[in-house]
Amino acid sequence: RRQDVLTVTPWLAPIVWEGTFNSEILDSAYRPLNLTIGVTAFAIGKYTRFVGHFLESAEKHFMKGYRVNYYIFTDNPETIPDVQLQPGRRFVIVPIKKYPSWQEISMRRMEAINKHIAETSHREVDYLFCLDIDMVFYNAWGPETLGDMVAAIHPGYFNVPRSQFPYERRSSSAAYIPDGEGDFYYGGAVFGGLVKKVYEFTKTCHMTILMDKANGIMAAWQEESHLNRHFLSHKPSKVLSPEYLWDDRKPKPPEIHLIRFSTVDKNYKEVRD
Amino acid sequence: RRDVLVLTPWLAPIVWEGTFNRDILNAQYMQKNLVTGVVTFAVKKYWFFIEGFMSSANKYFLAGHQVNFYLFTDNPEQISHLQMAPENHLFVIAVQNHSQWQDISMSRMDIISRYIRSQFQYEVDYLYSIDIDVQLFEHIGVEIIDTLVGTISSWQYTARRESKSYETRTESQAAIPKGEGDFYYTASFYGGSVAEVYKLTRACFKGVMEDRENDIEARWHDESHLNKYLLYHKPTRLLSPEYYWDEEL
C-alpha cells in the first residue's frame, strides 16, 4: 500500500506504482485468458541502433509468460539485428517510409500505428502498447499495465503544478489546452490498451495532427501534445506511474521505488540527423 | 484519502468519499447513453419498506440518469402510487412468497438470473441488486458503475481474515479455504454489467441448489455464495461500507 503518492485518479482509474498491486493475483486472473500483447516501436534512420538492446531487455522483463508480438516499424529492415526470443514471442518488421524531419517522423507514428492495426494487428493481438525504441527495460512490466486505455505520467512533470505542464498553449492548435485545465502531463513514449481503443485513439490524434498541418502550426511537443489533448477529453482507464517511463538523466526521487522502463542516454543532435 | 485502502491488490478502485470527482464521472457517463437497472425484493412484511426505499432511491440513486427500478413483490396491491422522477421507471413484478426468509433470500439469485435472460438484458446495460430495507441519505452516483461491483460489508470492514463470516465447511459449495479471502462483501448491494450479474447469479444459485441437494445451508445463505464467487472472480470495483451502512453499528 502506498500512502505517499496518489494511487487513484478522480475518475477512479488506478495509478500503478510498486506496492499498489500483487503480481500473483493479477497473473492468475490474466494468464488463463491466453492473451497476446503487441508492442509497436519505430526504428527509423539511426534509431535502428537501439533495437537490439530494447528487444533483449524486453525479453527479460516485458510481460513474461505471455504471448508477445513485437512490431518494429523501420525504413531500413537490413539493419535490424536478429534477436533470440523466448517461445510464444514473435518479431515482425513493418517497412515504412522515412520522412525528412524528425518531428514529421515522430508525428506520422500515429498514422502508421492506426493503419497497421486496421490491416494486421487487430487480428493478432488483444492489447497493444506503443513504445519509444530508444528505451530499455530494467524491471518487470506485467499485467498490472493492462487496461482499456492506458497512459503513462511523464517523468519530468509528475511532481510539478499543472501550470507548468508543457501543453500546447496556442488556441489555434487542435492540441490546445487552456490554463487551469489538465489532469496530468502524459508522456508520448508510452501508451496502449485494447487494440480497438488504440485504433480509435491513434486515428483521432492523427486527425488533429493533420488539422494543425493544414493550419500551418506544429504543436509544442509534436504528437505528445495531441496525446495530452486527447487524454484530457477521453480519460485513460489506467495510468502508469513514471516507473514505466523514466528518464535516466534524472536523479531518482523517493517516490520512485523501481525503474522499469527508461531512456537510453544519447546525443539527440547526432541521432536525429 | 490516506486513512483507508483505495485500491485493491488487483488494482480495482475502492470507492470512498473523497476519492472521486462526480462531475468528471458524470461527463464520462453521459457520453455513453447508458441505462441502469435496480432489482429489489419486497416479500411478505417487507412491503412496509417500499415507500421509504423508493422515495429515497428515486431522489438519490443515479439522480439525473435513466434508472429502471424492478420491484419484485408478492403483494402488488399494497403498493401505493409512487411518484417517479422523469428519467426513472418503476416496474412491479409479482412473485410467490416462500415459507422461510432464507429461501426467499436465496431464490432471489434464481429470479434475477431468469429475468436478466428473458427481459433485463434488453432493457439495461448495468444492473444492481439492492436490499429494500434501506434508505439513501446521500447521493449514490455513477461512481458505482463498473463491470463487476461488490460492496464491503460494514460489519466486516475491520475484521481480520480468520474472523470473517465466510462459510468454512467444505461440504458447502460456498466454502472458502482457511486463510483465503480478500474482503467480506454484503449481499445487500452488488451489481455490474448485465452479463456479469447474470454469470454471478447463475453461479450462486447453482451453489445454493447443490447445497440443498447435499442437505446443507451456507452460514449466511446467498451472501456466502456471493463471497465465494467474488473471491474467484475479482470485482472490478469495490464500494466502501459508506454505500451500505447498518444503523445498528
TrEMBL record, chain A:
The active site is at 224 (nucleophile). It is found in: Membrane. InterPro entries: Glyco_trans_6, Nucleotide-diphossugar_trans. The keyword Zinc-finger does not apply. UDP-N-acetyl-alpha-D-galactosamine binds at residues 42-44, 47, 132-134. Binds 1 Mn(2+) ion per subunit. Its main location: membrane. One of its GO terms (molecular function) is globoside alpha-N-acetylgalactosaminyltransferase activity. An alpha-L-fucosyl-(1->2)-beta-D-galactosyl derivative binds at residues 154, 224, 247. Keywords: Glycosyltransferase, Manganese, Membrane, Metal-binding, Signal-anchor, Transferase, Transmembrane, Transmembrane helix. Pfam families: Glyco_transf_6. GO terms for biological process: carbohydrate metabolic process. One of its GO terms (cellular component) is Golgi apparatus. Its cofactor is Mn(2+). Coiled coil: none annotated. It is a single-pass type II membrane protein. Belongs to the glycosyltransferase 6 family. PANTHER family: GLOBOSIDE ALPHA-1,3-N-ACETYLGALACTOSAMINYLTRANSFERASE 1, GLYCOSYLTRANSFERASE-RELATED. This is Globoside alpha-1,3-N-acetylgalactosaminyltransferase 1. It comes from Spheniscus mendiculus (Galapagos penguin). The gene is GBGT1.
Automatic annotation (TrEMBL), chain B:
UDP-N-acetyl-alpha-D-galactosamine binds at residues 41-43, 46, 131-133. It comes from the Eukaryota. One of its GO terms (biological process) is carbohydrate metabolic process. GO terms for molecular function: hexosyltransferase activity; metal ion binding. Mn(2+) binds at residues 131, 133. Binds 1 Mn(2+) ion per subunit. An alpha-L-fucosyl-(1->2)-beta-D-galactosyl derivative binds at residues 223, 246. Belongs to the glycosyltransferase 6 family. This is Histo-blood group ABO system transferase 1. It comes from Spheniscus mendiculus (Galapagos penguin). The gene is Abo.
